[in-house]
Write a sequence for this structure.
């Protein structure tokens, strides 16, 4: 096995990092960062689809292309950004720069709502948001160590979803007071707040070797070759299940927004904000619960719950046009997404222990996920144009069932796992 050794680190560095340490300022700053970054990480999200269809007269297919443009930027850069974060020590400044770029793109799209400008800005925003997941996961692992990682990730997701609740409420209020432009400026304000919070994370509190998953069980710090990383079949099955899940999930909320906007054009943004708020309210306790119980219940058992609710959610969307009932169905979205945000990071950390490829693999999986999500928005948009909203939701539910089957049959639990132990049967 070919190994590339990192800078010398004491043999007990990983153990010391795992021990509880007084890093109150950095952890609280990370709380604030994940809270304020909630609105920035997704850009305008489904609000853009509502804006271009209800205000600019775009079709659902064109709106899907705009959403896909952002995902295209993500697809082309995610893997490289993950590898970059593995090597980068200025992770905090990378987050600051990316947040400012997303905010700038949002403001430009509002003042220059041309198709070329919106597609181009969405692409740039898609590149920028690839920084956030691996950088935050790396900082979290480097701050608290493996023993506290699941709880820390659950806390990150709890604050992130809480931030989404506040951001959605802010978007609804600004939209009501200032029109559609209020949503665009809300993202810029959250970006500024997230940038300020990032600067309060102390650089000296981050173990950068641990942050990339270079901690082997024998205390050494090593980086394995890509061929060794890809020899683990568990990674391939896990990635397949996750991609199918996101293919089924990505287009659901934008379709709900477009379905509501057909009969409620003037208040569509407010209804969409309500959809987001309900889901995010549910995600907060679910994410914290998952983080606190995933070590005892097992990664697979927790994750199966998230996979199971997605096909049910898609089918329920076909039963009504009532906005209140569509919003109530977002409870299932909250359960699935709350679990996913915690379990995916923890399982990737398990699979890459002792490899030094933690953030690279996150980026690679996110690239695959981006492909699935882009295809979801694009294909479902044209499917809806041809056959209506119910056809789109049924199609997505069928894909969700396939993702559940793949995860149930092929993905094993990853506790006490790592690539260096991959020769054991999965």
């Amino acid at each position: 096995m070919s190994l590339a050794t990192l800078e010398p680190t004491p043999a007990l560095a990983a153990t010391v990092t795992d021990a509880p340490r007084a890093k109150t300022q950095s952890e609280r700053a990370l709380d604030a960062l994940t809270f304020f970054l909630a609105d920035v990480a997704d850009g305008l999200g489904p609000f853009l689809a509502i804006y271009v269809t209800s205000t600019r007269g775009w079709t659902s297919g064109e709106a899907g292309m705009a959403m896909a443009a952002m995902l295209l930027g993500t697809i082309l850069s995610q893997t490289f950004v993950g590898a970059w974060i593995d090597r980068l020590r200025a992770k905090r400044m990378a987050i600051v720069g990316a947040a400012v770029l997303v905010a700038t793109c949002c403001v430009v799209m509002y003042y220059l709502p041309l198709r070329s400008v919106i597609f181009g800005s969405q692409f740039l925003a898609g590149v920028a948001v690839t920084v956030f997941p691996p950088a935050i996961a790396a900082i979290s692992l480097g701050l608290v160590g493996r023993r506290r990682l699941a709880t820390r990730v659950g806390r990150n997701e709890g604050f992130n979803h809480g931030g989404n609740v506040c951001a959605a409420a802010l978007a609804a209020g600004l939209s009501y007071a200032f029109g559609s432009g209020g949503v665009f400026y809300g993202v810029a304000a959250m970006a500024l707040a997230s940038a300020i919070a990032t600067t309060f994370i102390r650089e000296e509190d981050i173990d950068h070797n641990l942050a990339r998953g270079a901690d082997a069980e024998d205390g050494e710090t090593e980086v394995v070759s890509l061929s060794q990383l890809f020899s683990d079949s568990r990674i391939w099955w896990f990635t397949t299940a996750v991609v199918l899940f996101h293919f089924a999930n990505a287009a659901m909320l934008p379709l709900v927004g477009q379905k509501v906007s057909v009969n409620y054009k003037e208040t569509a943004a407010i209804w969409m904000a309500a959809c987001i708020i309900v889901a995010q309210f549910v995600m907060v306790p679910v994410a914290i619960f998952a983080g606190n119980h995933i070590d005892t219940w097992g990664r697979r058992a927790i994750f199966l719950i998230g996979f199971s609710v997605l096909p049910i959610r898609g089918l329920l969307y076909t039963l009504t046009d009532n906005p209140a009932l569509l919003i109530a169905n977002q409870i299932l979205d909250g359960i699935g997404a709350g679990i996913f945000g915690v379990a995916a990071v923890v399982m990737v950390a398990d699979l890459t222990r002792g490899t030094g490829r933690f953030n690279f693999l996150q980026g690679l999986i996110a690239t695959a996920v981006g492909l699935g999500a882009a295809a979801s928005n694009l294909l479902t948009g044209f499917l809806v144009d041809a056959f209506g909203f119910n056809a789109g939701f049924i199609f997505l539910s069928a894909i969700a069932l396939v993702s559940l089957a793949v995860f149930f049959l092929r993905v094993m639990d990853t506790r006490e796992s790592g690539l260096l132990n991959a020769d054991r049967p999965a």
Notes: Strands lie at 3-5, 222-224. Confidence is low (pLDDT under 50) at residues 1-22, 419-426.
